[in-house]
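Hi R.,

Here's the input for the magnesium ion complex you asked about:
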Amino acid sequence: MVETGIPKLDEYLKGGIPRGKTLVYLNHPGVEGDVFGMQTLYHNLQKGAVCVYVTSSSNPGTMKDQFKEFGWNVHQFEDTLLIIDAYSSLIGALSNENFVVSDPENIGNMTEMIDKAMKEVPKGSIIMLGSLSTIMDLCGEEDTLKAVKIWNKLALLRDHVIIYNFTTWPYEESTLNSIKTELFNSVITVGGIAERVIFGQYFGVLKADWSDTKIKSMLFRVLRPGGIKIYIPKILVTGPFNAGKSSFIHSLSNRAVSVDRLGTTIALDHGHIEYKGFSAEIFGTPGQERFDPIIQMISGEAMGIFLVVDSTLPKDFIRAKQMLEITKGYGLPYVIIANKQDLPGALHVDEIRSHFNIPEDVPIIPTIATSKEGVFEAFDVLVEKITGGN
Amino acid sequence: MERYSLGIDKLDENIQGIRSGYNIMIIGPPMSGKETIINNIVYQGLNDGEAAVIVTTREPGEDVLEWFNYNNLEISLEHLGIVDCVTKTLGVPTSDTANIRRASSPVDLTGIGVKISQFLEEFWMKKNIRKTRLCINSLSTILMYSNIQTVFRFLHVFTGRVKTAGAIGIYLVEEGMHDPQAVATLKQLFDGVIEIKEENDVHYIRTMGLSQKPSKWYEYTVEGAKIVLKDGE
Ligand SMILES: Nc1nc2c(ncn2[C@@H]2O[C@H](COP(=O)(O)OP(=O)(O)OP(=O)(O)O)[C@@H](O)[C@H]2O)c(=O)[nH]1
Ligand SMILES: [Mg+2]
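And here is the predicted structure with magnesium ion in place:
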């Protein structure tokens, strides 16, 4: 399997792309879809794979420099990153690469070079087309589609994986359809959430003929440095007065602020988390009942909830369940945080479960928020529930 | 509805404000001061508190900024975004700045598109600016590297984005560089045209599609950073 190196995506693809198969990143114009291809390339170079990169819209040096802003140095892979230069001839520049497409407007020329490179690299290598849409722009839609079929067959013969980057400009409907449905073994869409402007980006698996996963789409963010991170715009932390919500948020976050007065939260807590390929915003509610209207206000559009309880105070569990109702948490993935496990009299997870009378599949995680114990385990569990395959 | 002005007095009086969502082609012969006209349009926008995104295909982003500097025109950098399609093709090692993001070449329409979108998002979402003008200087360079269908598809997407964002788009075309059929094809995407002509060393300008009737032809001269119109014919 060739991993994509994109968080979550390899899981959805059941481990990655099987040898001999193809994947296309279908990038809507204006979204940062090209980073997906770059991250996949870098991930595999780092793992020691031999990669052939076809550059058709920038010169090889510039192409390599573009990785820098994500903190990735591909210049170190001189021996394992081979370039097919389909750009220099276009602007009348000389090329130092081993594989040069002398006439980028001639698709036969491209096929020749791809064939040649595929034969020179070891079986099971990775071929990446930097921009299939640029090739299509130069060579025409029909001829390019035909050529892609040939390239895919050539790859299959030698167990190579081909990864395409394609920007979905308004081509013929039939062209786009054939790209979405028949030409490739797997199709990943990278799109934008737009209102007046594009303000959010997502990806989703449209097709992967070796696995049956049908998944919802995932929001993502691009960090510089860092690359693609799964983005969770809102996780809510709620629970009774003094349970340890603010402490939990501060332990989990790279940076966090609380609006507190005399040690109790009167408005909200907010933290930002960068952890294991995830980027999340976490919001905490106050605990006191007099703030219930605020709690309701803060809760909208959350993707998941941490319900924090003080494990030594079972009398507060009723209030905890009530807060889950106020935040409409029952419909969302939620995890119960059995906090203050260090204090004498703290109840065990099983005891808490019986007090709560909740289904077996609701996770209860023991934590000591003040010393960060258990908080990242809790994060893993909730995020898995939010982003999980089903 | 929001209106935009060009900053060229007699034309503005005639138009009474350009509707938001409009896409406009500026077409004229070489050496007619089109560059100054486009810079004036940007300057007017910034002065009106709007944002501007300039796609530069002929000179590095720094040179675009320098023009304003050199002419002592103060601009709010907070409101200006430049998509530089030149610097990376020169092989000069540079990185992006707050105002200048660099596409890898004029062929890289995908990259140009991403950078335009990033600026539009930044102005709308982060800076809460509701009016933006997008200026592409020039389409002619882009047409040198990509064929007309490709450029048409690119413009189809981005003239659409200008409409949904309630911005205006200004696209510069060199007259005489392209076959007339290509120019006619592109014109379908635009709501109006600013036309420039030269007769006996004298330059004239008029607008079409921006008011009920085409404007008169105004004789004009470029004086420093300014475009000065005489009374029309
Ligand atoms: N021993 C122990 N103390 C904890 C733990 N978590 C939090 N505390 C303490 O419990 C008190 C309340 O913690 P906070 O994080 O402010 O609780 P909160 O839920 O935000 O409280 P409100 O906003 O007032 O509802 C503080 O004194 C914390 O130091 C824990 O795991 N163990
Ligand atoms: Mg608190």
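One thing worth noting: Residues A 245-246, 265, 269 surround magnesium ion (ligand 2) (CB under 6 Å).

Cheers,
M.
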